[in-house]
Design goal:
There is one protein chain. The protein has one helix spanning 70-76; strands at residues 8-14, 19-21, 28-36, 60-61, 64-67, 85-98, 104-119. By secondary structure, it is mainly beta. The protein has one domain: Nucleic acid-binding proteins (OB fold (Dihydrolipoamide Acetyltransferase, E2P)). It has a five-stranded mixed β-barrel with strand order 1-3-5-7-6. A hairpin with a 6-residue loop joins strand 2 and strand 3. The longest helix has 7 residues, at 70-76.
Length: 152
């Protein structure tokens, strides 16, 4: 029997500055990512376009992530700001907690074990003023007709 692996990989942008929580020596970091789902397609397989915007229609998920490693959390809290683009890898854990009245509630932790910073925006940095690295003139493709959506 094959062993099942509990691993995930996700790429998305932070919806707000990462939050440091916990006490001294037991700090952990929490954040949500905005992760786009693949664009919707019709029955013929063509991309569905929003008639109001002319853009592909897709939905976005906002999962919650936790970095439990205290040293990693302290090192990242001043780097992970709203709009930072990151790649995360880790494990999904389902836990149960009981409140004072005895009601049990289940919740899910997406525990980050590895994080790659793709584009950082420091906490409090105005995303309008920040400039993301882009291609130089030498790196931009020659002008010509844009590829159609079916070519992707």
């Amino acid at each position: 029997m094959a062993q099942a692996n509990n691993n995930f990989t996700a790429v998305g942008r932070l919806t707000k500055d990462a939050q440091l929580r916990g006490g001294t020596g037991k700090e952990f970091l929490t954040f949500n990512l905005a992760i786009d789902r693949p664009p919707k397609r019709d029955a013929q397989g063509k991309l569905v376009v929003d008639p109001n915007t002319g853009r592909n229609t897709c939905e976005t998920d906002f999962p919650y992530f936790v970095i439990w490693n205290s040293k990693q959390a302290l090192g990242l809290v001043n780097i992970l700001g709203k709009g930072s683009l990151v790649s995360v890898m880790g494990q999904i854990r389902t836990n149960t907690k009981e409140d004072a009245s005895g009601v049990r509630t289940s919740y899910q932790d997406n525990r980050v074990e590895d994080i790659k910073l793709l584009v950082t925006k420091k906490p409090g940095e105005n995303s309008v003023d920040s400039k993301e690295p882009g291609p130089t003139e030498a790196e931009t493709p020659a002008s010509g007709p844009a590829p159609s959506e079916e070519e992707f």
